[in-house]
Amino acid sequence: MRAVWAVFKRELALFFRSPIIYVIAFALMLLMGLVFSTIVASYSANNQSQFAQQLVTANNAVGDYMGLFTFLLFIFAPLLTMRLLAEEQREGTLEVLMTLPMNDWAFVIGKFLAVWAVFTFIELLTLIYVVLLTAMGVPTAGMVFSAYFGAWLYGGAVLALALVWSAVSEDQLVAAFLGAATILVLYLASSFSGLIGNTLGAGAADFMREVGLVVHYQARMLSGLLQAHDVIYFVLIMGISLFITTLIVGSRRWRSN
């Protein structure tokens, strides 16, 4: 655990000394702010004074802007992870770090936890929109928790996926592009389930639907429905992706020796 903590602290310090986190946070908040104002304006035009209507309006607004937040992660998650291993490889510092008394798993986990912590910081910034929503109506606590907890797991999953490509490529832009493409494919997988079903049958369609990110987060968690198998889905993506990343890092250590 000390090795994980050491890597975590090092990476977290590097993140907050780099302008990239502030640029990403600003860009995300700007985009979400523009869309949020549009959402609020559209709901306010039809807003009624009844409490039930205000509750539905606030819950729908949370679902809309958090759905946008998770969608945008196909761009921003790879930008956060692209340097973590790709830069180390390009500058030759990965081989130096691999000589330290730590196993590959601790090295990868430390880096992943650091970028997940940065993502958590950015996600918490969006709570300002929950506060602003109280002017229209207070969303239910269960809805807010499900949306934010689900987004936190979603973020961890897509960051872990993008980290695989940072381990594969020495070029940060290539790593970011491949990470974005992978996340986008998983995001759109559920949309193609019908087409797959027409070709390969209902079983293949169900499999494709469950593989996709959307059905687990936007179709369920954003509706306030928090189920164990959706949580397990995101944890599995994280576990498998980090396992693959560890194997790649381990192979580089073996070649350097």
Automatic annotation (TrEMBL):
InterPro entries: ABC-2_transporter_component
Membrane topology summary: Multi-pass membrane protein
UniProt subcellular location: Cell membrane
Gene Ontology terms, MF aspect: ABC-type transporter activity
One Pfam family named in its UniProt record: ABC2_membrane_2
Residue ranges crossing the lipid bilayer per the database entry: 20-45, 65-85, 105-132, 144-166, 173-196, 231-250
Keyword set, alphabetical order: Cell membrane, Membrane, Transmembrane, Transmembrane helix
One GO location term (cellular component): plasma membrane
Name assigned to this protein: ABC transporter permease subunit
